[in-house]
Structures are given as structure tokens and as C-alpha cells.
């Protein structure tokens, strides 16, 4: 799905940047195309091009200030606070997808579960027994990647905890 987002707060320094980064990262991790515009006291950064806006399926606005909306025309618009952009990007993206008529991550998971249950039902039930499962060794812990370990104690993680 193609999305555009706008984040805006009165100062436009920390919160709108954090929301923009979180929304963009979350959307890209979920396989969506997204362009995020940031508005603040310093002006507009990464302004959404007209052709990108025209191709978008939905618009997400995470703002604590007014955002000029006349350019969105008939697009599906999801409005929320900057805090929601920082703390619940998945929820905003799910709402935008749902309102635009696409499948949300929860629906994708349900479909995958239903598909795996259907595939599993073709197996021979005679192989199943009532015996308890044997203990297995727990999966080995993996080392966090450099970016994960940097984010876990980084500024963004601390700010997210502060605003949650």
C-alpha cells in the first residue's frame, strides 16, 4: 500500500521527527511505500511531491498543530496526535489501511493462521498421540545487532519511554 504522512508539532524539533521516523520505519518494515513530511517552526522538511500524493492510498496526519488539508482532496485521512505517531505507528498504519480498504497486519496474521490450519488439516491424524511432548531445548539467544543495541539505550528509546 502507498501511504503519505505528515508529522507536525509547535516546535517541530524532537517529537515530530521521532513520530516521522517511527511511522516511516514501521511502514517500511511492513512492506508499504511511504513518504513522510515533517512540519515545524523551522518550516517543512521532505515535502510530499504532488505525484506521490496523487498515488497514495491514504494519508496519516500525526500533529499537535493545524495542518493544511485541502491538498488531500478525496484521500482517506487518519488524524492523530504526535504522541500516537511516536507510540502507536502500527495502530495508525492499520487504521489507514483499513479505511483505505486494504488488509491490516492483524488480518494478515489471521489469514496466515487460517491458511496454516487448513494445510495442517490435510495431515494424517493417526500420527497424533495423547502422550505429552518431550522437553526441547530453548532456542539460543542471539546477540542484538549493532543498531538494536544502539536503539535500546539510545535517545529515541528514552524519549519513547518518556512519552508513553
UniProtKB/TrEMBL annotation:
CDD domains: PTS_IIB_fructose. GO terms for biological process: phosphoenolpyruvate-dependent sugar phosphotransferase system. It holds the Pfam family PTS_IIB. Residues 93-156 are annotated as: Disordered. Its EC number is 2.7.1.202. InterPro entries: Bacterial_PTS_Sugar_Transport (IPR050864), PTS_EIIB-like_sf (IPR036095), PTS_EIIB_2 (IPR013011), PTS_EIIB_2/3 (IPR003501), PTS_IIB_fruc (IPR003353). Signal peptide: none annotated. One of its GO terms (molecular function) is kinase activity. It comes from the Archaea. Residues 1-98 form the PTS EIIB type-2 domain. Keywords: Kinase, Phosphoprotein, Phosphotransferase system, Sugar transport, Transferase, Transport. The keyword Transferase applies. This is PTS fructose transporter subunit IIB. It comes from Halohasta litorea.
